[in-house]
Input
Amino acid sequence: MSSKNNKKSVIPMFRHWRIGVDEVGRGALAGPLVVGMFVLYKKIKHPLFSSFKDSKKTSKKERVRLYELFVKWRHDGLADFATARISPKLIDKTGLSTCGRIAVHRLCKRMSLPAKSRILLDAGLEAPASYVLQKSIVRGDETIAEIAFASIVAKVTRDREMQRTHRLFPQYHFADNVGYGTLAHRKAVAAFGVCPIHRRTFLRAYLQSNS
Output
């Protein structure tokens, strides 16, 4: 009996890969910045490629469903993905732009991307200079499927972390606001002060007024 049907798809040469990168959590008051990378090894015939949406325009239930689909694609050798997490402490120390570059550098290394890989990034992100074929695209998460998929991977990953964090600091309602500056979140900061995962540079005005 042939073992052909038991093998995963053979991954093609890197020049055929489609690589998308996006970030989640840039404007949050608390929690990490998470950058996602999605690598499509070969063309997949799926309706998702003509109807994809950025993670911000996708429901939580739909994001989880898509994440599970991506896991299946990875298992089948059709795609792969990863995330890089930047802590609030490092964000306060170096700023978001530098943190974004650090995260993308980590992902390029983790995914073992050759220097001639074609990397498509949402605007504001950049890969190391050695990746000469990189391209930053304004609203790339709305026009490039792989960038949108990277945003979904990053969003699901970050939301899950914030759900866990909520159990440690329930007074800030992280399960609902995932670190963003909702009214309930701001009221909690006014009542309880900041916790270890708050970005102090983002809350500087509040901290100065209460010092």
